[in-house]
Amino acid sequence: MLLLLLSLLGVIVLAFLSPYIEIVIWGTQIGSITPPPGPLLILFFLVFFINPLLLRLFKKEISRGNLLFLYALLLLVAVLPSCQFAQWLPSVVTGPFYFGTPENKWLPLTKYIPNWWTPLDKGKIKWFYEGLPPGESIPWEEWARPFFAFVPMVICFYFTMFCISFILRKHWIENEKLTFPLVQLPLEITSQAQNIFRDKIFRIGTAIPVAVHLLNGLSYRFPFIPSIPLRGIQVGTYFLTKPWNAVNPFFIDIHFCLIGFSFLASRDVPFSIWFFFLLYKLTCVMGSAVGWTPGWEDRSLRGVSFPYVEAQEVGSMLALVGMGLWGTRKYLKEIWGIAFKRAKSEPEASLYRLSLIGGMVGFTGMTVWGVLSGMSIWLSFSIFFLSILFALGVNRLMAEGGVNFLWAAQSGPNYLIFALEGGRILKIREWLVLLSLPYFIWNFKGPVGPQSFESFKIAQEAKISPKLFFYLFPIAMLLAMGIAYFYVIYIVHTKGGGVSLCDYRFVHVGQRPFMELVSVTDHPEKIVPARILMIVLSFIFTIFLFTMRWRFLWWRFHPIGYVTSTIWATNYMWFSLLLGSFFNFVIMKIGGLKLYRRARLFFLGFIMGDFLMLGFWLLTDAFVGTRGFRLFGN
Predict the structure, then answer these.
(1) Would residue 629 count as lying in a domain?
(2) In this predicted model, what pLDDT tens digit does every residue of 527-559 receive, in sequence order?
(3) Measured distance CA(411)–CA(430) in Å, rounded
(4) Is the dihedral of CA 624, 629, 630, 634 positive or negative?
(5) Residue 612: pLDDT band with limits 50, 70, 90
(6) Can you list the alpha helix ranges (DSSP code H) found in 118-245?
(7) At what angle do helices 2-19 and 37-45 cross, to 10 degrees?
(8) Cα–Cα dist 569/343, whole Å
(9) Is 77 domain-assigned?
């Protein structure tokens, strides 16, 4: 009972915190990066404040198992109160009505929006964007319609991903022994919370980001105080002439936590990410030199500029997931036998059976939702199937590479469909649904779906039964979505309206689906051979990288490095990954495994310091009222 109450209380707190911090304070997004700061800050609060208080007053404390179960459960739902559901749903379904004008030709297209997606009284949509008029009350019944329209699809998507994760977890954790860098700090601070801060190496590692972020936070509030630049250090300004200017955007960001994660990951992965990123920038220069790249990289559905960054991402991600699933074929056959055989020797047989059946039911539910929204059966099946593959690939980046910035500029599944179809075949309503879906099933702002592989890794380390997640996860999802969504509606109406609160969430997100819809439907295009060729070549090259790693121990280039080289977030990550892999290499060369184990605490301190200061400044801003200071993200 204590665990149930603690878990539900944690979900409720997170559901209120995320919208308040990300919209009202306009601070660091606590639900959209990995590990999501919201669950981690709640864990810090319990470990470093509540447990010592309980020990002093009652000689008892919250057990490590309960702490880690709460954290793991919060990982499963962390993105829902943030940018993957609660904060984007209102804009996606109402933006075209508010921003539509005769000039942009959106208003005639609004008739294709399913009526059950949107508020019935379109006149009251204006209140959401401009604030509640004096004397009026929030039309809750109008805003309940979008919530109940999208909740079934999101639950099906998340539960399907959860079931797939449960099936694959043992293969990733025990057979492949992936490093899971993102969960090492929570495991460490809960196992020896009283001892870790006594370690001098850990304290030094923590002190460095604390000092830097303290200074920079004060500088943001008091401009006469000098700061230490960590973000947006421009390198591209030194490359202004053709062909070198094709390297832009090119800048340096320094993130202490990412240096720590890359140090803890398998060295080949962070090394490969920054290597292939710099190689990608070089190919942009080469393309410009021969006239293939007219300007900066193009990340639109119609992008036809060399080196076709979205095409490379699509082909490489499909190969990454495909090769990963190919390597699990014997394991999956074994799981199928365990799930459906009569013998009761396998204790988790019923859970495997539930996962297999639940995954199929969830996927069927998504497909039916897509059909009801206006897609054909084959299109609905295809888009959700592709989305699950891409989400699985993103989970692989987190589990093996410690990649914690994951946002991409364009939906991979939509890009693939447009590359093959070009807006010539699908109906307008089908494209409308396709262009609206990425805000719920694509990593536009961090990972999408439950971070269940990390949750299962934590459960295994803490010896927590996975069965508990099956019971509480659906309840936690509904609680997180319901509280956060209606709290967003309340905040936006009462704090001046979405336009004044956050340009990205309530303007850009409200406009982008229809901007792309007009582009697709007004100007259909034939298949572009170069785009298809690049998808195929990137697919083949990724398989080549896999083959080399399997056959030669000396091969250092990891497929994940190539897969992530062209995603937008790598612009922010590459330099920190370079530093982390460099420190890993030097320390292993000088002192071997013994020195690495000591240095590990130093880099765990880097992660700790980043997130401690994130919490400190968020708490300060909540009291003082400062807006816009972020340690990372945008």
Answers:
(1) no
(2) 889 999 999 999 999 999 999 999 998 999 999
(3) 15
(4) positive
(5) very high
(6) 125-130, 140-170, 184-191, 200-221
(7) 130
(8) 48
(9) yes
**Are 351 and 166 in contact, with CB atoms under 8 Å apart?**
yes
How many of the other CB atoms lie within 10 Å of CB of 438?
24
Structural domain containing residue 459: 2-624
Domain contains 302: yes
Total domains present in the chain: 1
- The reported pTM is 0.95
CA distances from 116 to 164, 369, 460, 470, 481 (A): 30, 12, 42, 30, 18
Q: Which tens digit of pLDDT belongs to each residue from 247-258?
A: 989 999 999 999
Asked if residue 633 belongs to a domain, the reply is no
Q: HSE on the CB side for 83, CA within 13 Å?
A: 29
Amino acid identity, position 107: L
Cα 577 to Cα 564: distance, rounded to the nearest angstrom: 12
Cis (ω within 30 of 0) for the bond into 146?
no
Residue identified by tokens 């999408």 is: 448
Structure tokens that stand for 589 in this block: 């060369």
Token reading at 86:
């609660």
- What band does 305 get if pLDDT is binned at 50, 70 and 90? confident
- Does position 191 have pLDDT exceeding 90, yes or no? no
For the segment 563-577, the average pLDDT, to the nearest whole number, is 94
- The pLDDT score that the predictor gives to residue 301 is 86
